[in-house]
Amino acid sequence: MIKYNFRSEINKEINNNNDTNEIIAEFLTNILEKNNSPYHSEFIDYIDWIDAPEFMLNQIEGINHFVNKVDKFKRFIFIGMGASSIIPQFMSNKSNFSDNRDFIFIDGSNKSLMNSIIENPSDCLIFFISKNGKTIETQSIMNQYISSIIENDPNFNFNEHLIAITDFGSDLYNYAIKNNFSEIFSNPPNISGRFSPISYTGLIPAALSGINIKKLLEGIIDFKERLIIKNDSKVKIIKLINTIYNLLNLKIDIFRLSTDDSNNSKLLWVQQMISESLAKNNHHIIPILKEHTIDINRKDIIDLEFNEISSDININKNTNKIIFETNSGDDSSYGVFIYTTMVVIAALSYIESNKDKQFNPYTQPNVEIAKSEFHRHNMSDQINNILTEDKTLSSAKYISFLFYCEDKKEMHVEIRKIIKHMNIKNIPFFIDIAPSYLHTTGELHKKHIENVRHFIVYDNYEIENKVNLNEILNRQLQSEISIFKKNYSNFNVIHLNEIIKHLKLL
Q1: Fewest CB within 10 angstroms: 8, 104, 108, 220, which?
Q2: Average pLDDT of the residues of the chain
Q3: How far is residue 470's CA from residue 456's CA, in Å, rounded to a whole number?
Q4: What is the pLDDT of residues 138-150, one digit of tens each?
């Protein structure tokens, strides 16, 4: 169920645009009906997500066999960057985890978690997840793991504890074949990473955690059938997409995401879907997290709340809200939420493509440029504070804090100070942590948006003469500075110890 509540002045300006309704209806027909539509031919390399529920339903027997085979393991560790880390988290039902089993998710941002993959290795099943198998952070963690295991116990047969989830023929796929991984799951090839919850990337951790993936998939398939015919489900999703588009036309593009469970990682997936898929659009959306900005109250913010139905929700008439409700514990309902999100994201790009120029919601070209820039820098490059011309915070649409820090403990201390300071200023803000940042919301931050200030924050870390996460972090930081300069972005590069002092001067 979806509920709306907008201030009276916004309600008056939101019109149910029939032209846009027709475009949305056309989009739903094009993607859901197998009629060789122009949409299918134009985005053929990216849209296997549309029919992934039907494809994966045929893989249920194999997935269940795998789940039974690995029941002896105590710890399931999922390693990947961006969607390859986020999707296993939000597709796992943590309420189903038994006391004697542990699920750990590593994305390279927290170096201390590396210890988790070398402690008691016989109890661990480790999943390396990467679509193209080239993700440098995932490769680095994998190499460090194998080196550490061989060094500590040369006789340990670590291959039996390794699983790969990737595309057929990728670098990771070939590496896993060569090194005799216990299992290799090949996803449908034409799915971009963040659109892959309904693939092995999402369904393996879901099944391991106790989710009924058959019910989840059948719920999505039933939902798709209801969207093809003009019934209540189709009317509601058209209204939702049109409402969001109208809000963007009113220059209301800051969407604050929250859920009744602050630890629910589905918010990170929604944030990534919006940031990476829609940042290229003329009408981009800035998705911030409410856990950081809870005290900020501005009329140009829309709250997107994702809640499980447990009690009646009291909606404050003085706030702007769109509320998504799912049935608590209903795997079918959760599948519908996932599929709805993907349809809405793709549709918003489709509308603008019909009204202006073509947008591809499945790619992130500016992130790819940043990744290319990465190889232009050396591990020995040094960072100095770069203080650009100051602008008052009152003129900022939002503030972006991008952290490239090794000392995560000290970093989180400073983040708490930032949250307190920024809430007093009543300015929306992002907080992102490298190296995962480049894979999650990097596309949005590389779009030149007026009245946006970026703070790139670093600390002093030691650089060793080998490829590791510190060296990757340093080169990514150098790359980020280069890209921001090329984009003429408003940014400062500041040491972690200087950030609060600098904020107080603005």
Answers
A1: 8
A2: 85
A3: 16
A4: 888 888 888 888 8
